[in-house]
């Protein structure tokens, strides 16, 4: 039986990328998104290596991404007196091409809106699998049955919680929190797409960075899980002010302007561990819902490749989700393992003064170049099938 109708939860990157391919293969796709509209701006995201580029070229969007790309930036680590300690190169942080998340989402939406149904301002509240499919209950009322349901709704995925179990069973706190403020994209100047510089300051277990001319900011700090981090924006801003009190450099000035910046966002640095099984029954997960590692550097590329693989396997299996899901699990289990090798918090905000010195030495050493080459190989470590362009 061909599972013709597909409900995708999430309209950021993984969801529309999956909708792009599924609609080409003749599936009837509905994308539900809790936000009332597409979100512009956001953090800069990047792609690295031939695998990412191959998928984007097959989608026909590589040239458009090139046109909308942001400026690459180096992160310069400074001491409290403004002296340079080390530099993290833009080639490492920005991959081969970097684009604002909102711009990429817009590109994907423009290429799917005519073939798919988008339901903004709504979300899934319940899932019940039956012999006929999956019955989805919606927050704004009503139910509808779909052949398949895909969770592309991020690290705090509601679909994962409904189909697999509580978030605490799958999302593991890596001991740090991060905060971004100032849109669009920290470290970027949209009027000057050449290389720009972000400036960063460390104290044990803390890092604060100021971006380009837009004044955007990034904070990381070591902490066990905090209930306060789930409070409202005003309380979260007070938390950042408390955590970064006493730091030197430009940090006091950054904190003073924090409440005037747009796009404030605070969350824990976490990793999704699914045990290599991203499917259950008629439900599947893709992108951060399945294999997130916050700030790990491969998330968007994994999402786009995962969407390509999942849709392609469903197409060649004639819509037989059992066969397709098994292949998807097998392929992505191996490729997604690269996510478990990084903890951006520990690298960018070491917990001791000795750790900060070691990080600075590492960034100046030849070993850092070897790590960059390893990252390149990891991003390409998949035998990418040549699925048909459409069926």
**Through-space gap between termini:** 17 Å
**SS-based structural class?**
alpha/beta
Radius of gyration: 21 Å
- Helix percent band: 25-40%
Highest CATH level, the class: Alpha Beta
Overall pLDDT metric: 88
Largest sheet: 7 strands, mixed
DSSP helical segment count: 14
**How are strands sequenced across the largest beta sheet?**
5-4-13-14-15-12-16
The CATH level-2 architecture is identified as: 3-Layer(bba) Sandwich
Q: Note the beta-strand portion.
A: 25-35%
Oligomer: single chain
Using the alpha-carbon principal axes, give the shape: globular
* Unreliable sequence segments: 185-190
Q: Report the strand count.
A: 18
CATH homologous superfamily (4th level) name: FAD/NAD(P)-binding domain
Question: What's the domain count?
Answer: 1
**Topology-level CATH name:** FAD/NAD(P)-binding domain
């Amino acid at each position: 039986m061909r599972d013709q109708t597909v409900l995708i939860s999430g309209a950021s990157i993984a969801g529309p990328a999956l909708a792009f391919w599924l609609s080409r293969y003749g599936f009837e796709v509905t994308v539900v998104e809790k936000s009332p509209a597409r979100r512009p701006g956001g953090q800069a995201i990047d792609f690295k290596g031939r695998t990412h580029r191959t998928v984007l070229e097959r989608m026909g969007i590589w040239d458009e991404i090139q046109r909308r790309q942001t400026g690459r930036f180096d992160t310069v680590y400074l001491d409290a007196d403004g002296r340079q300690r080390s530099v993290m190169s833009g080639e490492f942080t920005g991959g081969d091409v970097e684009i604002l998340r909102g711009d990429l989402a817009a590109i994907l939406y423009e290429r799917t809106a005519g073939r798919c149904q988008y339901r903004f301002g709504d979300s899934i509240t319940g899932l019940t699998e039956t012999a006929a499919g999956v019955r989805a209950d919606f927050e704004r009322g009503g139910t509808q049955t779909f052949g398949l349901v895909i969770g592309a709704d991020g690290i705090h995925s509601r679909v994962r919680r409904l189909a697999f179990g509580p978030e605490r069973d799958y999302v593991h706190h890596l001991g740090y929190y991060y905060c971004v403020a100032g849109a669009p994209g920290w470290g970027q100047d949209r009027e000057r797409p050449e290389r720009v510089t972000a400036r960063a300051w460390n104290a044990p277990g803390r890092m604060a960075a100021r971006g380009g001319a837009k004044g955007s900011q990034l904070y990381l700090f070591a902490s066990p899980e905090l209930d306060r981090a789930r409070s409202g924006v005003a309380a979260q801003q007070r938390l950042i002010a408390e955590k970064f009190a006493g730091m030197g450099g430009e940090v006091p000035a950054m904190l003073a302007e924090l409440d005037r910046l747009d796009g404030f966002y605070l969350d824990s640095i976490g990793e999704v561990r699914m045990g290599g099984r991203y499917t259950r029954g008629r439900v599947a997960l893709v992108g951060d819902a399945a294999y997130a590692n916050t700030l790990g550097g491969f998330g968007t590329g994994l999402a786009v490749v995962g969407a390509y693989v999942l849709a392609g396997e469903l197409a060649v299996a004639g819509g037989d989700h059992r066969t397709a899901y098994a292949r998807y699990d097998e392929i992505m289990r191996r490729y997604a393992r690269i996510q478990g090798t990084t903890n951006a918090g520990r690298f960018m905000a070491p917990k001791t003064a000795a750790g900060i010195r070691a990080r600075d030495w590492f960034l100046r050493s030849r070993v850092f170049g070897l790590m960059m080459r390893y990252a390149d190989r990891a991003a390409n470590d998949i035998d990418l099938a040549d699925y048909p362009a459409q069926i």
